[in-house]
Design goal:
alpha/beta; Rossmann fold; six-stranded parallel sheet; 10 helices; 12 strands
Protein backbone atom coordinates (compact mmCIF):
# COMPACT_ATOMS: atom_id res chain seq x y z
CA UNK A 1 0.00 0.00 0.00
CA UNK A 2 1.40 3.39 -1.01
CA UNK A 3 0.58 6.55 0.93
CA UNK A 4 1.11 10.20 0.04
CA UNK A 5 0.93 12.36 3.18
CA UNK A 6 0.53 16.12 3.14
CA UNK A 7 1.36 18.28 6.15
CA UNK A 8 4.00 15.78 7.26
CA UNK A 9 5.84 18.50 9.17
CA UNK A 10 2.91 19.18 11.51
CA UNK A 11 2.18 17.66 14.90
CA UNK A 12 -0.17 15.02 13.47
CA UNK A 13 1.92 14.43 10.35
CA UNK A 14 5.12 13.64 12.21
CA UNK A 15 3.49 11.10 14.49
CA UNK A 16 1.47 9.59 11.64
CA UNK A 17 4.68 8.88 9.73
CA UNK A 18 6.09 7.16 12.82
CA UNK A 19 2.93 5.08 13.17
CA UNK A 20 2.85 4.18 9.48
CA UNK A 21 6.45 2.96 9.68
CA UNK A 22 5.32 0.34 12.21
CA UNK A 23 2.98 -1.30 9.67
CA UNK A 24 4.77 -3.26 6.92
CA UNK A 25 1.64 -3.18 4.75
CA UNK A 26 2.32 0.53 4.24
CA UNK A 27 5.08 -0.33 1.82
CA UNK A 28 5.85 3.16 0.57
CA UNK A 29 4.97 6.23 2.60
CA UNK A 30 5.93 9.60 1.16
CA UNK A 31 5.54 12.41 3.66
CA UNK A 32 5.61 15.94 2.29
CA UNK A 33 5.91 19.24 4.10
CA UNK A 34 4.35 22.43 2.77
CA UNK A 35 7.76 23.37 1.37
CA UNK A 36 8.03 20.06 -0.48
CA UNK A 37 4.44 19.98 -1.74
CA UNK A 38 2.32 23.11 -1.71
CA UNK A 39 -1.10 21.48 -1.78
CA UNK A 40 -2.68 24.82 -2.72
CA UNK A 41 -0.86 24.73 -6.06
CA UNK A 42 -2.80 22.56 -8.54
CA UNK A 43 0.16 21.71 -10.75
CA UNK A 44 2.25 20.55 -7.78
CA UNK A 45 -0.61 18.38 -6.55
CA UNK A 46 -1.10 16.74 -9.95
CA UNK A 47 2.62 16.10 -10.37
CA UNK A 48 3.01 14.57 -6.91
CA UNK A 49 -0.01 12.28 -7.19
CA UNK A 50 0.80 11.20 -10.73
CA UNK A 51 4.42 10.52 -9.80
CA UNK A 52 3.63 8.23 -6.84
CA UNK A 53 0.25 6.77 -7.79
CA UNK A 54 -0.71 6.32 -4.14
CA UNK A 55 -3.48 4.07 -2.89
CA UNK A 56 -4.33 6.71 -0.29
CA UNK A 57 -3.67 10.43 -0.07
CA UNK A 58 -3.65 11.31 3.64
CA UNK A 59 -4.39 15.02 3.67
CA UNK A 60 -3.17 16.40 7.00
CA UNK A 61 -2.13 19.81 5.71
CA UNK A 62 -4.46 22.65 6.63
CA UNK A 63 -4.77 26.21 7.85
CA UNK A 64 -5.70 25.65 11.50
CA UNK A 65 -5.16 29.11 13.04
CA UNK A 66 -8.83 29.84 13.61
CA UNK A 67 -8.47 33.58 14.21
CA UNK A 68 -6.23 33.98 11.17
CA UNK A 69 -8.94 32.28 9.11
CA UNK A 70 -11.33 35.08 10.10
CA UNK A 71 -8.77 37.64 8.91
CA UNK A 72 -8.21 35.94 5.55
CA UNK A 73 -11.16 33.76 4.47
CA UNK A 74 -9.86 33.32 0.92
CA UNK A 75 -6.61 31.86 2.21
CA UNK A 76 -8.56 29.58 4.58
CA UNK A 77 -10.79 28.26 1.79
CA UNK A 78 -7.78 27.78 -0.47
CA UNK A 79 -5.90 25.74 2.14
CA UNK A 80 -8.84 23.83 3.61
CA UNK A 81 -11.24 23.39 0.67
CA UNK A 82 -9.85 24.14 -2.77
CA UNK A 83 -6.76 22.06 -1.98
CA UNK A 84 -9.07 19.10 -1.43
CA UNK A 85 -10.63 19.69 -4.84
CA UNK A 86 -7.18 19.63 -6.43
CA UNK A 87 -6.29 16.44 -4.60
CA UNK A 88 -9.60 14.85 -5.61
CA UNK A 89 -9.09 15.72 -9.26
CA UNK A 90 -5.59 14.22 -9.15
CA UNK A 91 -6.85 11.18 -7.23
CA UNK A 92 -9.44 10.39 -9.92
CA UNK A 93 -6.70 10.20 -12.54
CA UNK A 94 -4.44 8.04 -10.37
CA UNK A 95 -7.13 5.79 -8.89
CA UNK A 96 -6.36 7.02 -5.38
CA UNK A 97 -8.61 7.58 -2.38
CA UNK A 98 -8.39 10.48 0.05
CA UNK A 99 -8.31 10.52 3.84
CA UNK A 100 -9.11 14.03 5.08
CA UNK A 101 -8.70 15.09 8.70
CA UNK A 102 -11.43 17.54 9.71
CA UNK A 103 -12.62 19.17 12.92
CA UNK A 104 -15.26 19.57 15.60
CA UNK A 105 -15.65 23.16 14.36
CA UNK A 106 -18.04 21.92 11.64
CA UNK A 107 -20.68 22.00 14.42
CA UNK A 108 -22.12 25.14 16.01
CA UNK A 109 -21.66 23.98 19.60
CA UNK A 110 -25.31 24.40 20.58
CA UNK A 111 -25.94 20.73 21.29
CA UNK A 112 -26.37 19.28 24.78
CA UNK A 113 -25.18 15.78 23.91
CA UNK A 114 -22.16 14.55 21.91
CA UNK A 115 -22.31 14.94 18.14
CA UNK A 116 -22.62 11.78 16.06
CA UNK A 117 -21.21 11.51 12.56
CA UNK A 118 -24.67 11.82 11.01
CA UNK A 119 -25.77 14.92 12.93
CA UNK A 120 -26.37 18.10 10.90
CA UNK A 121 -23.38 20.41 10.59
CA UNK A 122 -23.61 24.15 11.10
CA UNK A 123 -20.20 25.84 11.47
CA UNK A 124 -20.06 29.37 12.85
CA UNK A 125 -16.43 30.29 12.06
CA UNK A 126 -14.54 30.68 8.80
CA UNK A 127 -12.27 27.84 9.89
CA UNK A 128 -15.21 25.50 10.46
CA UNK A 129 -16.91 26.55 7.23
CA UNK A 130 -13.76 26.04 5.19
CA UNK A 131 -13.13 22.59 6.67
CA UNK A 132 -16.73 21.58 5.98
CA UNK A 133 -16.27 22.83 2.42
CA UNK A 134 -13.25 20.54 2.17
CA UNK A 135 -15.38 17.62 3.34
CA UNK A 136 -17.94 18.40 0.64
CA UNK A 137 -15.32 17.95 -2.10
CA UNK A 138 -14.96 14.25 -1.28
CA UNK A 139 -16.89 11.18 -2.39
CA UNK A 140 -18.49 8.23 -0.63
CA UNK A 141 -15.42 6.00 -0.99
CA UNK A 142 -13.14 8.58 0.65
CA UNK A 143 -12.51 8.86 4.40
CA UNK A 144 -13.19 11.86 6.66
CA UNK A 145 -11.85 11.84 10.23
CA UNK A 146 -13.13 14.60 12.50
CA UNK A 147 -11.16 15.26 15.65
CA UNK A 148 -10.92 17.89 18.41
CA UNK A 149 -8.59 19.60 20.88
CA UNK A 150 -5.51 17.95 19.35
CA UNK A 151 -2.30 17.75 21.37
CA UNK A 152 0.88 15.78 20.77
CA UNK A 153 4.65 15.61 21.15
CA UNK A 154 5.52 17.87 18.23
CA UNK A 155 4.75 21.47 17.31
CA UNK A 156 2.74 23.95 19.31
CA UNK A 157 -0.51 23.03 21.03
CA UNK A 158 -2.61 23.93 24.04
CA UNK A 159 -1.15 21.24 26.29
CA UNK A 160 2.34 22.69 25.82
CA UNK A 161 0.95 26.12 26.63
CA UNK A 162 -0.63 24.74 29.80
CA UNK A 163 2.67 23.17 30.86
CA UNK A 164 4.50 26.45 30.28
CA UNK A 165 1.97 28.18 32.52
CA UNK A 166 2.42 25.45 35.14
CA UNK A 167 6.15 26.21 35.26
CA UNK A 168 5.50 29.93 35.76
CA UNK A 169 3.84 31.73 38.63
CA UNK A 170 0.64 33.62 39.21
CA UNK A 171 -2.99 33.22 38.29
CA UNK A 172 -3.99 31.21 35.22
CA UNK A 173 -7.40 32.00 33.70
CA UNK A 174 -9.21 29.58 31.40
CA UNK A 175 -12.79 29.39 30.18
CA UNK A 176 -15.14 27.07 32.01
CA UNK A 177 -18.04 27.31 29.53
CA UNK A 178 -16.39 25.65 26.51
CA UNK A 179 -16.58 21.87 26.65
CA UNK A 180 -14.92 19.32 24.40
CA UNK A 181 -12.84 16.15 24.19
CA UNK A 182 -9.04 16.25 24.13
CA UNK A 183 -7.36 14.12 21.45
CA UNK A 184 -3.81 12.92 22.00
CA UNK A 185 -2.04 12.55 18.66
CA UNK A 186 -0.55 9.14 19.51
CA UNK A 187 -4.08 7.74 19.87
CA UNK A 188 -5.38 9.63 16.84
CA UNK A 189 -2.74 8.30 14.44
CA UNK A 190 -3.16 4.72 15.65
CA UNK A 191 -6.87 4.88 14.88
CA UNK A 192 -6.22 6.72 11.62
CA UNK A 193 -3.85 3.96 10.49
CA UNK A 194 -6.39 1.36 11.58
CA UNK A 195 -9.11 2.94 9.47
CA UNK A 196 -6.84 2.86 6.43
CA UNK A 197 -5.84 -0.74 7.08
CA UNK A 198 -9.52 -1.71 7.39
CA UNK A 199 -10.26 0.07 4.10
CA UNK A 200 -12.91 2.23 5.77
CA UNK A 201 -14.77 5.10 4.12
CA UNK A 202 -17.22 7.79 5.16
CA UNK A 203 -17.12 9.98 8.27
CA UNK A 204 -15.61 8.91 11.60
CA UNK A 205 -15.29 10.93 14.79
CA UNK A 206 -11.99 10.24 16.52
CA UNK A 207 -11.34 11.81 19.92
CA UNK A 208 -10.37 10.48 23.31
CA UNK A 209 -13.17 9.27 25.54
CA UNK A 210 -14.64 11.67 28.08
CA UNK A 211 -15.12 15.43 28.01
CA UNK A 212 -14.50 18.49 30.13
CA UNK A 213 -14.05 22.26 29.97
CA UNK A 214 -10.77 24.01 29.23
CA UNK A 215 -10.67 25.15 32.88
CA UNK A 216 -11.08 21.56 34.06
CA UNK A 217 -8.42 20.37 31.63
CA UNK A 218 -5.90 22.90 32.95
CA UNK A 219 -6.61 21.87 36.56
CA UNK A 220 -6.22 18.22 35.56
CA UNK A 221 -2.87 18.81 33.86
CA UNK A 222 -1.59 20.94 36.76
CA UNK A 223 -2.47 18.11 39.12
CA UNK A 224 -0.67 15.52 37.01
CA UNK A 225 2.60 17.44 36.99
CA UNK A 226 2.44 18.61 40.61
CA UNK A 227 1.61 22.26 39.97
CA UNK A 228 -0.70 24.25 42.23
CA UNK A 229 -4.27 23.75 40.96
CA UNK A 230 -5.38 26.70 43.08
CA UNK A 231 -3.71 29.03 40.58
CA UNK A 232 -6.27 28.04 37.94
CA UNK A 233 -9.27 30.38 37.83
CA UNK A 234 -12.46 29.79 35.82
CA UNK A 235 -13.79 32.55 33.57
CA UNK A 236 -16.62 32.92 31.06
CA UNK A 237 -16.00 33.13 27.32
CA UNK A 238 -17.56 36.59 27.36
CA UNK A 239 -14.61 37.88 29.38
CA UNK A 240 -12.18 37.22 26.53
CA UNK A 241 -14.54 37.66 23.58
CA UNK A 242 -12.77 40.81 22.47
CA UNK A 243 -9.41 39.04 22.20
CA UNK A 244 -10.59 36.35 19.77
CA UNK A 245 -11.94 36.96 16.29
CA UNK A 246 -13.34 33.49 15.65
CA UNK A 247 -16.28 32.17 17.68
CA UNK A 248 -15.54 28.92 19.52
CA UNK A 249 -18.19 26.18 19.87
CA UNK A 250 -19.46 26.10 23.44
CA UNK A 251 -20.01 22.33 23.27
CA UNK A 252 -18.10 20.36 20.66
CA UNK A 253 -17.91 16.87 22.14
CA UNK A 254 -17.64 14.23 19.41
CA UNK A 255 -19.35 10.88 19.90
CA UNK A 256 -17.13 8.20 18.30
CA UNK A 257 -20.31 6.44 17.25
CA UNK A 258 -19.13 5.06 13.89
CA UNK A 259 -15.99 3.57 15.46
CA UNK A 260 -18.08 1.94 18.18
CA UNK A 261 -20.79 0.40 16.03
CA UNK A 262 -18.23 -0.73 13.42
CA UNK A 263 -16.61 -2.80 16.17
CA UNK A 264 -13.28 -1.00 16.03
CA UNK A 265 -11.06 -0.47 19.06
CA UNK A 266 -12.26 2.48 21.15
CA UNK A 267 -10.08 5.49 21.76
CA UNK A 268 -8.53 5.55 25.27
CA UNK A 269 -9.92 7.78 27.99
CA UNK A 270 -8.45 11.28 27.90
CA UNK A 271 -7.43 10.99 31.56
CA UNK A 272 -4.96 8.24 30.78
CA UNK A 273 -3.62 9.67 27.51
CA UNK A 274 -3.38 13.33 28.51
CA UNK A 275 -1.76 12.42 31.83
CA UNK A 276 0.81 10.23 30.07
CA UNK A 277 1.65 12.89 27.50
CA UNK A 278 1.72 15.71 30.04
CA UNK A 279 4.17 13.85 32.28
CA UNK A 280 6.35 12.98 29.28
CA UNK A 281 6.53 16.56 28.08
CA UNK A 282 7.03 17.83 31.63
CA UNK A 283 9.99 15.49 32.18
CA UNK A 284 11.52 16.53 28.87
CA UNK A 285 11.47 20.14 30.01
Amino acid sequence: MRLLVTGAGGQVGKEFLEEAAAHPIFGEVVGTTRQELDFTERSQVFDAVAGLGPDWIVHLGAMTAVDACEDDPDRAYLANALSVRYLKQAARRAGSRICYVSTDYVFDGKASSPYREWDPTSPVSVYGKSKLAGESELEAHDLIVRTSWVMGRYGRNTLKTILSLARAEGEVRFVADQVGSPTVVEDLVKTLAGLLLEDMSGVFHVSNQGHLSWYELVRFVFGEVGADQGRVVPIDSAEIAGTRKAPRPAFSVLDNCALRIAGMAPMPDYRDSVAKLARRLWSAG
